[in-house]
Amino acid sequence: MQPGAPGQPSREVAGAAAPAPGHTDADVKFMQGMIHHHAQALEMTALVATRTARDDMTLLAKRIEVSQTDEIRTMQQWLADRGADAPSEHARHEPGAPLMPGMLTADEMARLAAATGVGFDRLFLTFMIKHHQGALTMVKELLASPGAGQDSDVFAFTSDVDADQSMEIDRMAAMLAAIR
Q1: pLDDT digit string (tens) for 121-162?
Q2: Are the C-beta atoms of residues 74 and 140 closer than 8 Å to each other?
Q3: Helix crossing, 117-143 with 55-81: angle to 10°?
Q4: Topology given in CATH for the domain delimited by 25-178
Q5: Alpha carbons 151 and 22: distance in angstroms, whole number
Q6: 136 in helix, strand or coil?
Q7: Residue 81's CB: how many other CB atoms inside 10 A?
Q8: How would residue 82 be classed by pLDDT, with cut points 50, 70 and 90?
Q9: Please, are residues 24 and 145 in contact by the beta-carbon 8 Å criterion?
Q10: C-alpha distance from residue 57 to each of 38, 92, 168 (Å)
Q11: What 3-state DSSP class applies to 138?
Q12: Cα–Cα distance list, 114 to 45, 94, 117 (Å)
């Protein structure tokens, strides 16, 4: 629409609207990698119920579980809608699966699984902070890629990941500082 002169109506201008930005290969790789990343967070949160006595740890784990399970479904649907491979939550255990930034190594996961009580709480919070920082790194790397992050769904998703995980890092850092 082009505004008219004072007192004159606006008029429609043909061809003036730019097409909505599409997705890039970097967007697809980001979504696929973030599925792997979120899947490991779910494995970590599954340990909490049998290894902590703290209600705040249980509530934190539940919040992470609910949000990241929903986000995995969203990412899988986004990929499927664009004809891209949508890995399952279990694909990260397949040979050659990538270890995305912040993800725990097999040794770190074993250490976490072996811990209990206050030792588990400290290790879980330390590792989950590292894990969330890795997700923020993935977002920054995506947005630094030419043309990436312009798809409205990808932009909204990365904005949510950045805000939610930054807030959870602050919350977990405070919880970690409070553990004696």
Answers
A1: 999 999 999 999 999 999 999 999 999 999 999 999 999 999
A2: no
A3: 30
A4: Ferritin (1.20.1260)
A5: 5
A6: helix
A7: 11
A8: very high
A9: yes
A10: 18, 25, 12
A11: helix
A12: 14, 23, 11
